[in-house]
Each structure stands twice: as C-alpha cells, then as structure tokens.
C-alpha cells in the first residue's frame, strides 16, 4: 500500500508552523545562493584575466559545499532543510510533504534566490550575476541528462539521510552528506553545464542578471531527477521494507 498523499489541512495555510518553515526556507536559500553565486562573482573579480581552470572549480565547489551545509543544518529542524525546489518536489512525489507546504516552499526558495542575487548585485557595485550556462561543444540534451543524473544523486542522498524513517543516527550527518554530494557534483558537472541541481539557484541569478539561454534545462533536469529519486527510494526502498500487514502512519507534523 503506497504512502498516502495530502493536499494539506485547511488551517495549514496560516498555521504558525507553516509560516516558520516557509521563512526558514527563504532565509536558508538566500544564504546558500548568496555564497554560491558570490563565489562565482569573486572568482571573476579576482582572476578575470587569468585562466585558473581546475583551481577555480574547486573554490566554487567548496563554497557551495560549505554554504549548503550551513543552510541545511540551520533549517532542518524547522522546515526539513530542502533549500531546493527539486528536493521539495522529490518529497512531494514520495508523499512526504503536502501540496500546500510544497507550494509555500517553492515560493520561499525562489524569492530567497532572487533576493540573494539582488543583494549580490548591490554589494558588488553592479556586477551582473552569472548563473549557469551550457559550455561550448556540449549539447542541450547532454546537459539535461547531466542535471537529471546529478539531481537524482542529490535527492537520493536526501531521502537516505534525512527522510528515511530508519535513518536513525545517520540523520545527524544529513547536512554534511547533502553538502558533499552537491560539492562533488559541481566538480563533475561544472565544466559542462554549471551543475545547478536546483531551479532556485538557477532562477535567481538568471532573473537579476537576465541570462535565460538554455534556462529550461535547469528546471526540467532537476525536477525529473528528483521525481525519479523520490519514486525509487520511497517505493523501492522504504515501502519494500515495510511488512504488508503494517498500517502506514499519517504524515508527520514536520512533513506538512
């Protein structure tokens, strides 16, 4: 019997817990995008005429890893630490979050990314956010597949360390594991298409910097990868471990 899905309780829209969780997602996404996109602008500012190559990539990957660790850790006990519309979608596909809560999170995440990008533009005296782009010689479908695979790995890790009811003490290292897989994926996908894995991370800089070329890749890829990961882990791992006679509990309060 699959886990039940929920549109959300009527009072959830104005419940204090929903407001706190939404605010947490907004602030944590702002922190992550400010540091992540800021690292890209810093590299451009410091080494504009120098081809650092791998060194630049490592710096950017490290910045994303550290920022995401802090963002997830600071919001996990309030909102679940999604910081990513794709992660929220994966949780929605698996029945781990209500539709109302998911919509709140998506709005908060996108707004957080936009505000972070605006603050960066002001703080850097008008530097235009870079966002993500497909490298020369890389096809759009190749970039899409890269985003799908990388986001699958991210959301699968989120499920295994932060969502799985049997995670036990593993949950304490969830922010670190999630940050590590993002950093590793930046090292892999960065040279090809930037390695977004996060529609909010792509949307904020794209809007403020007005860079929309191939932007669809950074929405479709993460959402497809997240959905596949949610289905595989929820129904292939979690549900497969539950005896057929066991009744499923309703969504936990933090899932709403």
TrEMBL record:
Q: Where are the transmembrane segments?
A: 50-72, 78-95, 102-123, 143-163, 170-188, 216-238
Tell me, what does this protein do in biology? Answer: Channel protein in tonoplast. These proteins may allow the diffusion of amino acids and/or peptides from the vacuolar compartment to the cytoplasm.
Please report the name of this protein according to its UniProt entry. Aquaporin TIP3-1
Sorted alphabetically, the keyword list is: Membrane, Repeat, Transmembrane, Transmembrane helix, Transport, Vacuole
Lineage per the UniProt record: Eukaryota, Viridiplantae, Streptophyta, Embryophyta, Tracheophyta
Tell me which GO cellular component terms the UniProt record holds: vacuolar membrane
Instruction: State the species of origin.
Output: Forsythia ovata
Where it sits in the cell: the answer is: Vacuole membrane
Q: Which family does it belong to?
A: Belongs to the MIP/aquaporin (TC 1.A.8) family. TIP (TC 1.A.8.10) subfamily.
Q: Which Pfam families match?
A: MIP
Specify the domain of life of the species encoding this protein.
Answer: Eukaryota
Instruction: Tell me if Transmembrane is a UniProt keyword of this record.
Output: yes
Membrane topology category = Multi-pass membrane protein
